[in-house]
Amino acid sequence: MPKRRSLRMLLFVAAAAVLVLSVRFGFADAWVDQYALPSNALSELPVTSTPSAIQVQSDPVPDAPQIPQAAVLSNRITEYHISVSLDEGGGGLTGEQTVTWKNPGRQTISELYFHLYPNAFAPGSTFINESKGQLRGDKMKAGSNGSMEITTLTTEQGETLLPRLHYVQPDDGNKKDRTLATFRLPEPVKPGASVTLRMKFKVKLPDVFARMGKAGDFIMAGQWFPKIAVYETYGTGNRTTEGWNLHQYHGNSEFYSDFGIYSVRINVPAAYKVAATGFQTKAPVINGGRKIFQFYADDVHDFAWSASPNFTFVEDSFSSPGIPGVRIKLYLDPLHKDMQDRYMHAAKSALAKLGEWYGEYPYSTLSVIVPPASGNGAGGMEYPTLVTAAAAQTDNPGYDLERTLLHEIAHQYWYGLVASNEFEEAWLDEGFTSYTEDKLMASIYGVLPNIPIEASYMTNPEPLNQFSWRYRSSEGYAENVYIRGKLVLSSLERQVGDKTMSKIMRTYFQKNKFKHPTSADFKKVVESVTKTKWDDFFQSYIQQGQMTDFSVDSITAHKTANGYESQVLLRRNGGSAQPVLVLFKFQDGQTIRKKWDGVQNHAQLQLSSTTPLEYVAIDPNLNVVLDNRRYNNYLKTEVPKEERTRFVTGITQIIEGLFGTLVW
C-alpha cells in the first residue's frame, strides 16, 4: 500500500508539472486552433505578443544550436547536403553539394533537370531580356553580372557526368539562357527509387539586384545553389500525365521546388553573422579567421541565407494558439537597431494571427533580415522560415515597415507551406498573401485597404492562371497577380460573408499544405464549403481576366395623368452574376432601394411616382469590389439624353481615400 500511495503521489506531481508546462507554452489553448474565426476580426493579440511583453536577447548569442524534430510533414523528395564558402573580396561563392532525389512517379526516369538561377544575371539571359535589367524599381548596375558554373558532376560511385550536361530553353528557345540544365543518367531511376549525385559549383554574385547579390559586406544568397526541378506526378498541378515541370528564370516569375531536407555548412569571415533557413545544429567553429555555421531545415522547398558583420541581432521566443513555439530572430541593419520593438511586435502579431486564422506554423524559427539601403533589391522577399524586410532607407520609416514585414511573413503560409507553382499561377501566392496582408494590417494596426481606389487601378485585367511571363508587362503582372488577385478574394468574401470566407481560407490551407495546389483546388474548396457552384465566378475572374461592370444604361421618363412614369435599363457588362443594390432618388427627396440579382445581363424596370425621378445609382455603397468603371454606375434623369453626364458614385469618399489610406 505505501508503495502504491508513493506511486500515485509521483504520478500526481508529474501530471501537475505537465499541466504547468503546457500553460507556459500555450498548448493548453490548442483547442482554439480547431475553429475558424473571422479573418477581419479586430481581436486583441495574446499578452505575449504586445510590445510591453517583448523580452529581447542581444548579442553575443545569435548562434544557439537546436535539435531536429522527428515529425515528417512532407513527401521529402529531395535531400541536400551543401558546403559553401564566401569569398568576401571577390564577391563569390564556392560550394559543393551531395543531393539525393527520389522518383515520386510511376515511370522510370533517365534524365535529371537542374535550375541554375544565378545565370539569370548573365548578359543575354531571358531574365535580363524580359526585365530590361529592372525589377521593383531597382536597376542592375552596368557590368555587375552574375553567373553559376558547375565544375564537377559525378555519381555517388565517382563516374563523371559533366560532359553530358547541356542547357535547355523550353519556354522561349533563347540559346543564351543557361538557367535550366539537364543530363542523362548512367542508370535510370525506377519509381520509388533514388539517385545521389555529387557536384561542385562556383557562383559570381551580382551587385544586389532582383533578390540576391552583394552590397558592400552585405550578402544575400537566394537561389544560389543548383536546384533540382520538380517532377510532377499525375494530378499534381494541372497535369494529366506525369513529367518534369520545366521553366527558365523569367523577368516576372518567382520559384517552384519540391519539399525536402537541407543540411548546409556556411563558411564566412569570423566577424560575420549569418541568418539562414532553418536553425543551427551546433555552435559555430572559428578557425583561421573564418567562422563555419551548420544549418538544418526539413520539410522546406528552398534554402536561403544572408551574411554581414554589421547585423544587430535580437532574438525572442514566442508561442500562441497555432504557434507552439518559435524563436524569432532579427538581423537588423544598424540604422534600424532602435526599432527592434516594431519589428518584433509585427512578427509576433503576424504569427499569432496566422496561427489563429489558418493553422499551425510548424517550424521552430523565423528569421527577419533588414538589408542596408545599398541592398534594397534584396528587401521584401520570402524564403522558408526566413524573410527580408524593406531595406533600411531612413531612420524614421512609416507603416511601410510593418506592411512589408507582414506581407513577407504571410508568405510563410501561402508560399512556404502551401507552395503553389509560382511560374504558372503566381496569384495563388501573391494574391493570397496580399489579401492576408490587408487582413493583418486591419487587425493589428487598424489600417484598412481602400478597395475602390485599388479596383480603379485595374486598367488592363488579364487572366490569373496564366504563366507569369505571359503578362503584357511587369506592371501588368503586378497589377493582376498582386492587386486583382486579392480583389478577387475580397469579392468572394463580400458574397459569402466573413465567417464563411474564413472557413474557406482555413480549409484551403489545411487541405493543401505541402501539396502544391492549383486554382482548381481552391475552387473545389470554395464549392465544398459553400455547397454552391462557382463556375462563372472562376471563369470570369481567374480564367478570362474580367472585371465587374454594372451600369445604368438609360432612363426614359414621361408625365402621366397621375404623376410620372420612368423606365430604367440596367446592364451587367462584365463579370459573373451577383446581387447589387440600386438606388432611385426622386425630386421630392424620396428614395427607393431595390436589389437586382444580376443574373441576366440586363434588367428593365418601370416605376410610377408622384414626382420626377431625379437619378439612379447602382451600388451606391461601393460593395461590388471588382467594379472598376464606376463612372457608368450613375445617371441623372432631368438632363437631356444627348447631354447626360455620368460620374462616379461616391466621388467624395474616393477623393478622401486618395489623401487617406495608401494602397500597396
TrEMBL record:
Cofactor note: Binds 1 zinc ion per subunit.
Residue span(s) of domain Peptidase M1 membrane alanine aminopeptidase: 352-541
Keyword terms of this UniProt record: Metal-binding, Zinc
Keyword Zinc: yes
Pfam families per UniProt: Peptidase_M1
Active site: 408 (proton acceptor), 482 (proton donor)
Record-listed Zn(2+) binding positions: 407, 411, 430
Protein name, entry field: Peptidase M1 membrane alanine aminopeptidase domain-containing protein
